[in-house]
Each structure stands twice: as C-alpha cells, then as structure tokens.
Write a structure and sequence with these properties.
Elements (H helix, E strand, L loop, with lengths): L13 H23 L6 E6 L5 E4 L4 E6 L4 E7 L2 E6 L6 H4 L9 E4 L4 E6 L10
C-alpha cells in the first residue's frame, strides 16, 4: 500500500503551507460574510405538519402556543427575534437554537412536527415574468 509508506513522502513545502493558510482564511471569511451580511428578517413562518404555514410579524411581540402531536410548544417573539421558549420533546434541540433574527434562520422540533423559519420583510413564493 503505497499511500501508507511515509518514508518517501515529501514534506510540506512553504508554498503548501501558504496555500493551506489562504484556503483556511478564505473559508472563515466566507462563513462570516454570509452570517453577518444576511438580511434581517421581518416575518416568522410557523409550519406544523399537516397544517398551512402561518406568518407572524417579528414586530408583534408575544408568546404563541403551537399545538403539535406531542403537545404545546411555546414560541416567543421579542426584540431579539423569535425562539422556541418551551417544547414537549425530549431532547429540546429546538430550544437550544436560541434567538433567530436573520432571513434564512431555521429551528425545528421534529418530534412535534414543528418548523420555524425567518423570512425577509415580504416572503415571495414564486415570481412570473
């Protein structure tokens, strides 16, 4: 097995190290750029399995009770955005998502059939020219 033979393997050159550094820094830069240039959302879309999605403005603060197959999930809309305040599921992964405020942010409670999405000010389903 030639790939396991490290005796004759060439060492990393200075150019290899510089290339690895540039690729790593570029990846970090792209991740940060995508995260911090995303548009602030204006609408919370609440999707429950089997129901029509409901839209709620992020400017209307309050707590929304959403009834799913396991029980009631409490969704909070506040000055920081929207979050799952309480959920009847076992692992509470949806609650650990924290505050969502940018368009494209998503939290899901799969056992309870609940998906929360943040959309821009006016979500568009389709466009026809």
């Amino acid at each position: 097995m030639w790939w396991l033979n490290t005796e004759n393997a060439p060492a990393l050159t200075r150019a290899d190290k510089i290339l690895a550094l540039v690729v790593g820094l570029s990846a970090i830069g792209l991740i940060l750029y995508g995260r911090y240039t995303a548009e602030a959302g204006g609408v919370l879309i609440v999707e429950l399995a089997g129901d029509t999605p409901a839209m709620h403005a992020l400017s209307n603060y309050g707590v929304l009770p959403v009834v799913g197959p396991l029980g009631v999930s409490q969704i909070e809309i506040g000055p920081k955005g929207a979050r799952v305040l309480s959920a009847p599921c076992v692992h509470k992964i949806c609650m650990r998502q924290g505050w969502m405020q940018r368009a494209g942010d998503v939290a899901a409670c799969v056992p309870n059939g609940l998906v929360l999405r943040i959309a821009g000010a006016a979500p568009i389903d389709a466009m026809i020219h």
